[in-house]
Amino acid sequence: MGIKALRVDDIETARLGSRGVMSKPNPLKKFRRFIEHSNWDEELLKYEKWVNASCMAVIAISVVFFFPVALSVLR
Fold first, then answer.
1. What is the residue-level pLDDT of the chain in tens, covering all 75 positions?
2. Phi, psi (degrees; rounded to nearest 5) at 21
3. In 33-65, which positions are buried (b, 16+ CB within 10 angstroms) versus exposed (e)?
4. How far apart are CA 60 and CA 49, in angstroms?
5. Global pTM?
6. How far apart (Å, rounded) are the C-alpha atoms in residues 44 and 41?
């Protein structure tokens, strides 16, 4: 029998096996990894005009929607 030295791969395999490799990935960790390792902010700047216009449209629609409510409250 003899002494067997553990390799790093053996330890990593045992650790992954104990955690359950087939378990669902954590969506929070996936999102964090996406934020940290991708250039999402540079990609968003390409669409800045469209994002600003859509935000202004949402604001305008909400003003039109709530204007009658505000008038009824003030009366």
1. 566 665 667 666 766 655 555 567 789 988 898 888 989 888 889 999 999 999 999 999 999 999 999 999 988
2. -65, -30
3. eeeeeeeeeeeeeeeeeeeeeeeeeeeeeeeee
4. 16
5. 0.47
6. 5
What does the DSSP assignment read for 2-63? Answer: ---PPPHHHHHHHHHHHH-TTSPPPHHHHHHHHHHHS-HHHHHHHTHHHHHHHHHHHHHHHH
If residue 5 lies in a helix (H) or strand (E), which one and from where to where?
none
